[in-house]
Amino acid sequence: MQIHHQIAELQAQLRGWRCAGKRIGFVPTMGNLHAGHLSLIERARASADIVLSSIFVNPTQFGAGEDYSRYPRTLEADCALLREAGCDAVLAPSVEEMYPDGADLRTVVRVDGLHDILCGAFRPGHFDGVATVVAKLFNLAQPDLAVFGEKDYQQFLVVKRMARELSFPIEIIGAPTAREANGLAMSSRNQYLSPAERQHASLLFRMLLATREALKSGARDYATLCEAALAELTSAGFRPDYFEIRRAADLAEPGPTDRDLVVLVAARLGGARLIDNLRVVAADVPSV
Ligand code: PAF
After folding, report:
1. 16 pLDDT higher than 80
2. How buried is residue 204: exposed, middle or buried, by Cβ count under 10 Å (0-12/13-18/19+)?
3. Beta strand 89-91 pairing with 2-4
4. pLDDT of residue 286
């Protein structure tokens, strides 16, 4: 497995693979890899001949006061895991290599309708940073497919819409959320939690499951369901940003006939901001 710090070196290697007719799968990451990331590599491997990953803690998707400077950087351990998982090449560029004219870009990709709702309302500019860096990575690597974790469901939709509207000839694949034994969604940010908080954090998943069950049983009063979940999380010591039921296709507020839904939550616990979601096909017949 080749580790490239220079974009031009990676591109030379990719040209060789492309000339040999290889199908290239891409898994962009910010490093500090865990089993969730490795499941994305596995998913890419299932549909591609060559798997490329990137490790880049992208400064433009962090807001002021967020965890950019303390975000765990573990390149050596990450590369060992990627090698073991059968990854073929890694791009690990410096900030200067990715943003040679400075990270304060004048060209920004913004996905209207998605960038400023849910997490975007609490992290202004975050999804512009994500969409822009992913567009850059797509341009420089030109993969045939790219895999994103559905744990970051809003990010997945942002990337899908961006790729479609900007005509990137790249298949965008969503991979299921990997979970700890207690249900907690795997995330690099889980390491900001103490062992006790890590156990307690599984309440997020249990609240999602309970809401999904209610929707499947015909409950349709979305506001009441979300208020109840927010109250329970708050009384359990979480500081929730939101608990919402949205349309799975576009994260719009669902109407009474919408069935393909997603329940999403973002909440702080201790020093971590945690997000999670669960898809649900709601029951056809509303309860009375
Ligand atoms: O999900 C992530 O790790 C990042 O947001 C991504 C997609 C690699 C862009 O920096």
Report:
1. yes
2. buried
3. parallel
4. 53
Whole-Å CA distances, 165 to 135, 140, 172, 249, 275: 12, 18, 13, 15, 26
Cβ(158) to ligand 1 under 6 A? no
Pocket lining: 31 vs ligand 1, CB cutoff 6 Å: no
pTM value? 0.97
Match 């201790």 to its residue by tokens.
270
How far is CA 108 from each of CA 56, 103, 120, 237, rounded to the nearest angstrom? 18, 11, 15, 37
Question: In whole angstroms, what is the distance from residue 55 CA to residue 90 CA?
Answer: 7
Reply yes or no on whether 34 is catalytic.
Answer: no
When pLDDT is cut at 50, 70 and 90, the band that residue 6 belongs to is very high
Closest CA to 89 of 20, 13, 142: 13
Strands 239-247, 24-29: pairing is unpaired
Q: 4, 5, 34, 37: which one is catalytic?
A: 37
Q: Read off the pLDDT of residues 212-270 as tens digits, 9 standing for 90 and up.
A: 999 999 999 999 999 999 999 999 999 999 999 999 999 999 998 999 999 999 999 99
In a 10 Å sphere around its CB, with 0-12 CB exposed, 13-18 middle and 19+ buried, how is residue 249 labelled? Answer: exposed
* Structure tokens, 165: 């509207």
* pLDDT tens track for 57-112: 999 999 999 999 999 999 999 999 999 999 999 999 999 999 999 999 999 999 99
Tell me, using a 6 A CB cutoff, whether residue 93 lines ligand 1: no
pLDDT tens sequence across 157-178: 999 999 999 999 999 999 999 9
Give the position of tokens 């369901």.
225
Give the whole-angstrom CA distance, residue 161 versus residue 203.
31
